[in-house]
Amino acid sequence: xxxxxxxxxxxAVIVPFICLVVLRMSALVGMTISAIIVTLLGYFxxxxxxxxxxxxxxxxxxxxLTIILILFGALTLLNTLRETNAxxxxxxxxxxxxxxxxxxxxxxxxxxxxxIEGASGFGTPAMVTAPLMVALGxxxxxxxxxxxxxxSVSVSxxxxxxxxxxxxxxxxxxxxxxxxxxxxxxxxxxxxxxxLIPLILVATMVVFFGKGKKGKAILEILPWTLFIGAIYVxxxxxxxxxxxxxxxxxxxxxxxxxxxxxxARKGILVPTTIWQDALTDDYDxxxxxxxxxxxxxxxxxxxxxxxxxxxxxxxxxxxxxxxTAVFNLSWNEILGYESISSSWELxxxxxxxxxxxxxxxxxxxxxxxxxxxxxxxLSAKTIRVTGIxxxxxxxxxxxxxxxxxxxxxxxxxxxxxxQGMAHTFGDVWLVIAPFLGxxxxxxxxxxxxxxxTFAPIQANIATAIGADPYxxxxxxxxxxxxxNMICVHNVVxxxxxxxxxxxxxxxxxxTLGPAxxxxxxxxxxxxxxxxxxx
Length: 534
What we know:
mainly alpha
């Protein structure tokens, strides 16, 4: 294996890590430098043609527009609900469930975020839950870190099963049986790794943002987090067995939300002490949360509309066909390259659905349309710098992804990395498999793309080492979900919606540990499952 070529292939990982995490540059500066370095190495060393690089840049610009719409929609919805005072009513509702921020982060970031993931994907959950938590009094950095960590377990099934149904679609013998078996394997491996995500989420928040006895704050919430985690992974396994991959990330959080709210209200397994160390300094904890002129259902209705419209456009085939065909702004075969394209179905986009829900909010809550227009103006100001950062990030991503189009007859950079890892770690691949999935998501920003890229390699390695291929594929899917915590363009987007642009390195430095721990646990669980059960 050529060491120089491996370093060039890994430059899409190494350079952003150095710029963002080690040197703590802003994403705007760090990703611009990364894009330039990776592009130059791709051109001069990998032999990527100039036209391919230009097409990749155009692909990145187009993809940026699709993400900006989602950002704008998520932020506009939140700003609208702030203007109508619905956020204050939602906050009062949470206070009636629990004043404890450890409980609130599980309900909002993990369970509500998982529900949004199951209906939408595309990085939407963290963009919705992070600003909502800021509105509930969480510090912006706390909100971003916890929103990204929480959006992990559910990503394995994503929007109605996309990471499995699409991610594994290029495999030989890809059929319903393969999808079903892999889905069950994912949830079986997750019985260990996924169960601990609520604990990891709370522990990360307490360790980085706590003030007092951090060990005590974690230990006293330990029983409840393990209980919620256990209920989540068991229900996910049941739903995967009964329904396949499509509805696991929708039915599971809905079920567990009911359990979480009930147990928190009744004080079952939750501590009697109230932890609020992550509150912003200027948050008014003495505000009256008992008197409101808006019902809780009315306050939450825009989010219910979001979930409903997402499901409607993704599950009901005639509606899906209509929303993907009308106002389709996709750009296919950019500069004549069949493999370089960018999809953007305007009506199907989560951003459009979020905007529709924001507009309907002022009607349902009987408020002035001015609340919506003001929210739009505020949102546009907040995200105006983000586009440049995302263009640089996605240009680098697509140069990396399209690197198979080269004059040196080399494999693509992702395939080169995968083969190098397989050659180096072949004997312990059962433990390493999730890390390849995470690497793919870190660079590409998509669990589905990671699995599309690496699933054939994972299947070949499973055959070579005589391991159960379904379990190895499950480890790939889980690792890709873990990479969602640290992928650069997700971090850039979430930071933008809470007005934290420039702090991306601080965020990744805090989510990197949980992501690696998640992969380690998934690897150990994969080893156990293959060794003793499959």
